[in-house]
Amino acid sequence: MGSFPLPSSSSSLLISSSSSISGRPSSTIFYPLMRFRQAQALSISCDYSCFEIRDVSYRPPGTKINLLSQVNLSIPEKSFGLIFGRSGSGKTTLLQLLAGLSKPTSGSICVQRYSDDGEKIKSPEPLQPERVGIVFQFPERYFVADTVLDEVTFGWPRQKGGLQLRELLASRLQKAITSVGLTGMSLDKDPHSLSGGYKRRLALAIQLVQTPNLLILDEPLAGLGGISNSILGCNQVVSLHLF
Ligand SMILES: Nc1ncnc2c1ncn2[C@@H]1O[C@H](COP(=O)(O)OP(=O)(O)OP(=O)(O)O)[C@@H](O)[C@H]1O
Hints:
Layout: E1 14-15, E2 20-21, E3 24-25, E4 28-35, E5 48-58, E6 68-76, E7 79-85, H1 91-98, E8 106-114, E9 120-126, E10 132-135, H2 148-153, H3 163-179, H4 196-209, E11 214-218, H5 227-232, E12 237-242
Parallel strand pairs: 10-11
Antiparallel strand pairs: 1-6, 2-3, 4-7, 5-6, 5-8, 7-12, 8-9, 11-12
Helix pairs in contact: 3-4
Adenosine-5'-triphosphate binds at residues 22, 60, 63, 67, 85, 87-93, 236.
């Protein structure tokens, strides 16, 4: 499966040997980076959830070509993983399925709850598209407002019964702005006038305010020159973070 050794912790992310994209086996690789479940002094239950892609195939309507064939992936909660592969290997196609922008031809995308001994408990739940946050490779293409503040608050409730929610969102905004390193930046700035890196930070802050269950970063290493190439041996990356 490519030239990249899987880390010893690969058991935290299941990789199907049958994963293949459009007849090009192993052109996309699911790579677990790290797992950062917080230590707890006293734990009563160790139940956990996994985000799972199960035997997903995709053929665009009206075509006879499978762009994705039997893709399988499992990411435990509070984990971070990467999908990487050559240009045209199907990363964006998979991302669109995760975001609910298109439906798998077969297979399912769900969240499964497990007991601490790995037994499935409860039925799998579908992944709600509104609980998925995406930062696109060129987020400025989706900017709609003239100021950073308007951009961040664009989707916030404007009218009925929204005061409490708006206060909650405002406090999350403060936290998100700080966590992506935009502290001190004027919220009156035109988002299009920001540097490429700051545009991505802004797009990330917008997603963090919504506290998605699954955060997807398309080409998270774009703009870092050869760094991604030297780290991963590949400069085409989609990363997934399950909260
Ligand atoms: N609606 C469609 N009909 C037919 N072929 C399609 C359709 N959408 C995408 N493709 C093809 O599917 C393949 C995978 O495309 P996709 O954009 O998912 O690849 P990618 O890995 O994200 O590429 P890149 O890294 O260059 O962005 C490409 O060969 C593309 O031309």
